[in-house]
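Subject: Protein entry, chain in single-letter code together with its fold tokens

Area: Proteins and the way their chains fold up in space.

Attached in line: The record itself begins immediately under this heading.
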Amino acid sequence: MLLGRVSRRFTAIQSNHLRLQPTKMTGTTWLTGLVEALIDIPWSMWEHRNHILHSPQHPTNLALRTQLLDAVESQTEIGNATLLPQDRHFLDIRTSALSSRTDQQLRQWLHSVTMAREAFYHAERASATQLLSQANLMAQWVQHPPPPSLTDQQRANQEHISLAHHDEANDGTAADARHTATLRPTTRQQPPPTPTPPMRNQNNERNLLRQWLTTKKNV
């Protein structure tokens, strides 16, 4: 039935019922009105749903609208003292102009102003931290001041003293080297030993002489 497929038997049943009633309606007209009513039910539910969610005159939406306008008024009362110079244009708009905006536009405006105030507080905290570090640095400088800067004459005197100490150290090193050289014992160079000639074997010479004499006799 909800899909529009109504049985034709309803026409006959309703016609028999309407004959007993003081009316000119027939079963066909009654069935036609039934189909139209079934079609109008989903459409009426859709309109009711849209009225609750989107109608500005609904009590829930009116209450939300009142809360948004109160928040806008609170932001305008705070003023632009807690806004950075580049964000103060948010409060240059009149309240009447803001009141004519939609709920979505008011939510976006409130979000932008809130983020701008957070940026201002963040910049203030960063500036306070920087000032505190500078104050601590100055306090340390007062407690432990740096040594006074030397004049050109004092710097030249220090360089002269450093050069004199350097020359004295070099002279002491050279004197120590000469003293060590005088204490070192001197050694003479001895000539290399003369090689001794090899000793001849007298027995071998005698044997050779005997062999030679024997050979002469035989000849």
Summary: The two ends are 170 Å apart (CA to CA). Residues 138 and 145 are 10 Å apart (CA to CA). The longest helix spans residues 103-143.
